Each structure stands twice: as structure tokens, then as C-alpha cells.
Amino acid sequence: MNDPPIVLIVEDGDEYLENLSRFAPGPRYLQAHSAAEALQRIAAHEIALVYLDMRFDRIPERELAGDRASVERSHGGDTARALRYLARNQGLFILEALRAAGHAALPVILAYDFSGETRRFERLAAQHPALTWVPDAITPDEIRARIERLLGRSVFPAAPGPAADGSGPGHDT
């Protein structure tokens, strides 16, 4: 029997971990709350896929990844605006930290709706070939399909279906 794949969920809360564990059981889920913690988990475990949140507004500012000085300069020296930018786009800074650490081939699902920003996503995907995205409003079936497509194998238990004799779920007896 194959061990279930390990999916690393990188988020600033617990919502994705709770929802994926509840509605998409099958993989083994681990969690990290920052870029540094994600890199530690990747070093310690055989991570098959990363499920990455975009916004990180609930972690201490000192844990935000990214070049603060550069971001502050690009925001006219406004530290508060720079920190808000880092928090709102933290998923991208974490994605860059993964690439810089040699993990560009690791499949990543970024929880952000790029449907209105196709060019932005295309630029990201050019740098991160194993990247895809999902909007927040996505069904468990769509999540499971996306994870299996990225992993290239089935990892979720089959849904109960009708028995060969026609009895069972989905059939009146």
C-alpha cells in the first residue's frame, strides 16, 4: 500500500487545514504559518504538494517574508503601507522563497482568484512551472481533482457507488 502524499498547507490561520482535512481526506496534511516554517517542513518531510494562501494578515510582522527595505522604498518610505503590501501578497513572497531554496518544481496551489489577472498569473507560472491557483469559492470535488491532477495519481478514497447488483447508495431497493 502506498503511503498517502504529504500536502503542506501554508496559511496564517487554520481554515485551509480544517477544510481540506474535513472535505478532502486522503493526503496527509501538514501546516506551516510562515515561509521559514514552510522551508523547515519541506526539509523534514517528503512534501508532494504545497497549498498556499495569498494573504497573511494574522502573523507577526517579523515573520513576513520579503525584502522589507525594498518594498518600503517602492511605497515611498511608508512602513505601514509596505507591511500591508507584504501581508496581502505574502503567498507570492513565500513562493519566491521556495523557488530560491531550490523547490521550484514542487507543485503549488495558490489560493487566490487570478481570473481577472491572467497576465499576472502567466508571469508567475513562467517562473514557477508547477503553479496553479484556486479561488476561495471552490468545491471539494474541484479541490480533489486539482490535487490529483498535480500529483498525477489518485489519492482520495472512491465515493460509495451502486453495488454490482443494483443495491446500495443511489439505487432504490
Describe it for me?
This protein is an alpha/beta fold. The protein has one domain (6-151): Response regulator (Rossmann fold, 3-Layer(aba) Sandwich). The protein has helices spanning 15-23, 35-44, 68-74, 79-88, 90-100, 118-127, 140-151; strands at residues 6-10, 28-32, 47-53, 108-111, 131-134. A five-stranded parallel β-sheet has the order 2-1-3-4-5, with helices on both faces. Strand 4, helix 6 and strand 5 form a beta-alpha-beta unit. Mean pLDDT is 91; it is low at 163-173.
Task: Give a summary of the structure in a few sentences.
With 173 residues, the protein is of the alpha/beta class. 40% of the residues lie in helices and 14% in strands.
Strand order in the largest sheet: 2-1-3-4-5
Overall body shape: globular
| Distance from first to last alpha carbon | 35 Å
Mind telling me the CATH superfamily name?
A: Response regulator
The oligomeric state is: single chain
Q: What is the β-strand count? A: 5
Strand content: 5-15%
Number of domains: 1
Q: Under the CATH scheme, which class?
A: Alpha Beta
Q: Helical stretch count?
A: 7
Low-confidence stretches: 163-173
The radius of gyration over CA amounts to 19 Å
The biggest sheet, with number of strands, parallel, antiparallel or mixed sense and barrel status, is:
5 strands, parallel
Helix content range: 25-40%
CATH topology call: Rossmann fold
User: By helix and strand content, what is the structural category?
Assistant: alpha/beta
